[in-house]
Amino acid sequence: MRIDPIETNIQTKLIAGYRSGDKAIQDKFDYQPFQQETYVQRAQDISDKQFNREGLSAVLSELNARWGGAQATMHNIERLKNEDSMVIVGGQQAGLLTGPLYTIHKIISIINFSKEQENRLGRPVIPVFWIAGEDHDFDEIDHIMMPQGERMKKNRVGQRSDQKQSVSDLQVDHAQAEKWLKKIFSQIQETDNTKNLYSCCQDLLQSSGTYVDFFAKIILRLFGEDGLVLVDSGNPLVRKLESDNFLAMIENQSSISQGVYQEIQKNRNEGYPIELDAEPESGHLFYHLEGSRERVLLFKQEDNTWAGKQKECSFTTAELRQIAMEHPEKLSNNVVTRPLMQELLFPTLAFFGGPGEVAYWSVLKPAFHALRIKMPPVLPRLSFTLVDKNTEKIVRNLSLPIKAVLERGVNAEKTNWLASQSNPPIEMLAEQVKKSIEEAHRPLRKAAEAIRTDLKHVADKNLEYLYRDIDFIEERINKTLQDMHRKTLEEYDSVNLCLYPEGGLQERSWNALPWINHHGKDFIRQLTASSFDYSKAHYIVYL
């Protein structure tokens, strides 16, 4: 394996400035994330904070044991009881078969940085992955993308979720899911790994009650030996630990909501638009309706009551406080308060996020300060493009610049290469012939117009027909050229599919399954054990 950093122009303005040390952007956060002194200071800053370590460890032990946590995972949960231990945390939704590759990249980041900081600080640093099980948008995770021809195609599991139901509560329809899994494996090439991989996925699926369970069991199979600890934010056991934290969010709703709203407006005025829906009256908490598993986002009304937009439910502040104390499982966080809950539950040394997450964290500083806590250091996760040996060979043989491929694909190079196979290019010849015909045809059009004006229209149409004949022969010649050079054109397409699928980075479309099927999971272990500069935007991994 070879790992090369690469500078690209695929970062947003905000992320590029954050990485480069732009003070105006870094001032939106409490810590400068790319200096080791930051983590020395952060460790000191959280050393005096109190956490319910015993309660948290008990819950994590129960959940991770249920998901098949390895000895290293259970040992790390036990280490969390140590008063000097800290965590590196990041999270994602419970994607099918791990979801897009960027989920794997985020977990690699968390594990890798945990090991690095434990060595540097001489204190236990535990990798924690926060499964956003409380999320209810099943449409976002009910599929994986698989290559089909020149494109990536969505393969949906077929199960529907009609209500705004948390994924943690959504039971797997095993008949649908097992049929879907069989279909997915029918689309991958048979290798020495395929049979065991399919059998493993079948076993994990059959033993899973929910899609969160299925996700968690696969992740622990991949990363359990690295001591990764999982937490499901939608689990009732976790919610019971969050009661006092919900109270703090209820009491400070105005400061949280107003502060975040103002920061969003400030960012937009500065040219950093944030895709975050946050209004001054947002409660940033969900309530789970009685007799239903549907979640309703709460808003603070003018009369100081809390209600859903459609008045699905309504509470006084006193009633909502009572719910937080007695039934915290009926509440859950949204995108603004989830980071606060992570910070209040865990002794967090650093948080890892994707580009979109880092962007919306840039407006959350007032929310943290409203609860009189600091935002942890925020690090952009590692971003990889995996290159197999065949793709590497094609890229080299076609002299394709890898940076350009990642930024815009290979369609322009493919078109130019095909045109170069005819000398002069057919398109140029066709244009020259059209100009010659137009010049030769001009006296005829003038004569027609001179005889009778309506004949000019007939002459013009005649010229159009001649042009169409040229277009026809140009198309036929190009089609023949494509047939003659089909192998090379298919190579261009395969590079595009691998490195620039659906017009973007590989990590956003590809699932890990085809890569593990071909290469086993050792390449993942090698990545977690490698050294990285986290200020670098992207890495090319040659397998």
Automatic annotation (TrEMBL):
Ranges where the Bacillithiol biosynthesis BshC C-terminal coiled-coil domain occurs: 384-543
Top-level taxon: Bacteria
Keywords annotated in UniProt: Ligase
Documented EC number(s): 6.-.-.-
Record-stated family: Belongs to the BshC family.
Upper classification of the organism: Bacteria, Bacillati, Bacillota, Bacilli, Bacillales
Segments forming domain Bacillithiol biosynthesis BshC N-terminal Rossmann-like: 1-382
Function of the molecule: Involved in bacillithiol (BSH) biosynthesis. May catalyze the last step of the pathway, the addition of cysteine to glucosamine malate (GlcN-Mal) to generate BSH.
Pfam families: CC_BshC (PF24850), Rossmann-like_BshC (PF10079)
Native source organism of the sequence: Sediminibacillus dalangtanensis
InterPro entries assigned: Bacillithiol_biosynth_BshC (IPR011199), CC_BshC (IPR055399), Rossmann-like_BshC (IPR055398)
Gene name per UniProt: bshC
Enzyme class: ligase
Full protein name: Putative cysteine ligase BshC
